[in-house]
Each structure stands twice: as C-alpha cells, then as structure tokens.
Amino acid sequence: MARRVTLTQYLLEQQRSHDKVSPGLRLLLEVVARACKMIGYHVNKGPLSGIGDVVGNINVQGEAQKKLDVVANEVLVEANEWGGQLAAMVSEEMDGPYIVPDRYPRGEYLLLMDPLDGSSNLDVNGPVGTIFSVLRHQDEGRVPDENAFLQPGSKQVAAGFALYGPATVLVLTVGNGTVGFTLDKELGSFVLTQPNIRIPEDTSEFAINASNARNWEPPVKRYIDECLAGKTGPRGRDFNMRWVASMVADVYRILCRGGVFMYPRDAKHKEGRLRLMYEANPMSFIIEQAGGTATDGERRILDLQPTALHQRVGVVMGSKNEVERIAAYHREAS
Ligand code: AFP
Predict the structure, then answer these.
(1) What residues does CATH 3.40.190.80 cover in the chain?
(2) Is the C-beta atom of 43 inside 6 A of ligand 1?
(3) What is the DSSP string of 247-262?
(4) 205-333 sits in which CATH class?
(5) What is the CATH number of domain 7-194?
(6) How far is the CA of 118 from the centre of ligand 1 (A)?
(7) Which residues pair with 313 in a beta bridge?
(8) Probe ligand 1: pick from 216, 273, 275, max atoms within 8 Å of CB?
(9) Per-residue pLDDT tens for 52-90?
(10) What is the Cα–Cα distance from 80 to 25, expressed in whole angstroms?
(11) Residue identifier of the C-alpha nearest atom 2 of ligand 1
(12) Gap from CA of 270 to ligand 1 centroid (Å)
C-alpha cells in the first residue's frame, strides 16, 4: 500500500524544505484542521445534531444566523485562541476583530475565516465548508486593530478550506502549490490525496447564479450568452453549467476538473456578493497556486487593497484562459 502522508507530515516537510512554513504556522494550520474536523462532525449529524435552527440572531451581514454558523465560529475561536500563534481573528460571524485575550500569549499571525460557507444549503443536506486565510501581524508589538487585517491578499502566508461533502476534504496552500487531503474518519487524520492540484487552462463549464442575468453588466452577459450559444455561436463548442450555491463546493469542482466560477458585481450586488477578506482572497490564493486566475472581473483579486473587514467584491476565478477572456471583455467594454 502506498505510504500515506498525513497533514502533519506534509506540513513538517514544508517546514523543513521551504522557509514558507514556520513551526508556529504549522501548529496553527494543524489546529485549524482539527477544528474543521469538529465542525464536520456537527454538519454530518444533520438534523440529529439538534442545532441548525435559526436562533433569531442576525449577524453583521444582516443574515439570519443558524446555530451551526455560531457553533462553527465558536469551535474555531476556542480552538485557536490559546495556542500562542495568533494575535487576533476575523470572522463572517463577528462584527469586529476578536483579539486573543490577555490570559493567552499573542503570536505573529492573524486568522480570517468564514466558519460555515454555504450554510443556506444545510436545510437541504447540501455541501458546506469552512474557509480560512492567514496573514502576518505586521506590528507584533501592538494589539491588532481592524487596520492590521486590511492587507492585500498577496500578503497571505496560507489559505485553505474544508468541504463537508460525501467525503470531508481539506484544500491547502502555503504558497508552494495547492494540495488536497481527505479525512480518514477511522483514524481521524487528514491524508494527502491530491499532492499537486492543477487547474486546466481551458474549460467548457461555467458556474453562475443565472437568476441574476437581468442585472449583469454587459461583459458578463456577453460571455454567458456566447457560452449558451454553444456550437452555433462564436465559441464553436457547447458549454455546461453548474451552480451549487456553496462557493467551497463550486471551487473544489474547478480545482478537480477546471471551470470558471462567477459571482460578478451587478445592478443588485453593486460591490459583488462575496466577501473579499475571508472568501475571495483565500480562494484566489488557492486557485492561483493551482495554476488558475482570479479577478474581480478585471483586476487581480490578490492585488486589491482592502478598506473594510466585511467588504464585498466581484469574483471571477478558475481556468486561466476563460478568466482572461472575461477580463478582456471588461477592458473592451470600458
Ligand atoms: P450562504 O453562506 O449564505 O449560503 O452563502 C453562500 C455564498 O456566500 C457562497 O458560498 C455561494 O457561492 C453564494 O453565496 C451563493 O449565492 P446565491 O445564494 O445568491 O446563489
């Protein structure tokens, strides 16, 4: 049987062979992965978990918080606050930064997360996941404030997501490619199953919520119309469409077989719908490290200078040649 490489072994090898992984970052990523296992445990119990009912809270996004959103956030905060690697955390489920309490040592890293992405799929047993991003705290001597987090995505030292689907998978980059692990539920270990994820540069599959079509900007409408025209249109081939309405699931599919994921700005979502800091940035780092491209329609997402923790952004990411075609359509339009 082929030697099974666990997440711990992979991170130790990265620490030894590349200066990109410090002992502190390795420990941080192992703690985040362990927290994801716990979240996956709750998710996989479905209605039997007794959580998931809307508790009536409305989070900073104005969304009804399901208890599992809150539980996932608590699991991540409690797992990460005592280890000494982090100075603070930002989450979709918390209005402002969570500063590691004085009773614990504060470290050099900042953690940003969407604890339960796709949670509106929970009621229908759809795939959901946890997205995370790691930045360095640039001024380690000072308690971080909101501004400490407002770094462009290119400053990320690690990013990843867990996908709680038929299997629980963990996708990770530390800046040395993108890799995938599958949870061996008997052993409780994440085992390396995709040692070098590469996104095909071409694709005939796109992902977009087509119910927004009337609101799309012209370059997006042009691109989608050409895909729908298929063999009879300018693309000369038929396209397929997928939309899981769970970014982690749609992005994982693209990592596995190519495609383009689109949640563009439109007349209804003027800034876009997805969050820059803990959805678009980590996913862009992962996609680029797998040979793909990620823009806000035109500009590279990882170059964008954030101005607010929960700001939204348009997202077009995946197979390089399609994302670049869409960016060209935006340039032509402007
Ligand atoms: P929820 O976490 O509220 O389910 O939103 C999921 C998400 O942020 C992202 O994962 C999906 O790609 C996108 O929203 C789906 O948006 P629509 O519901 O508008 O299709």
Answers:
(1) 205-333
(2) no
(3) HHHHHHHHHHH--EEE
(4) alpha beta
(5) 3.30.540.10
(6) 5
(7) 274
(8) 273
(9) 565 666 767 777 666 899 999 999 999 999 999 999 999
(10) 12
(11) 118
(12) 16
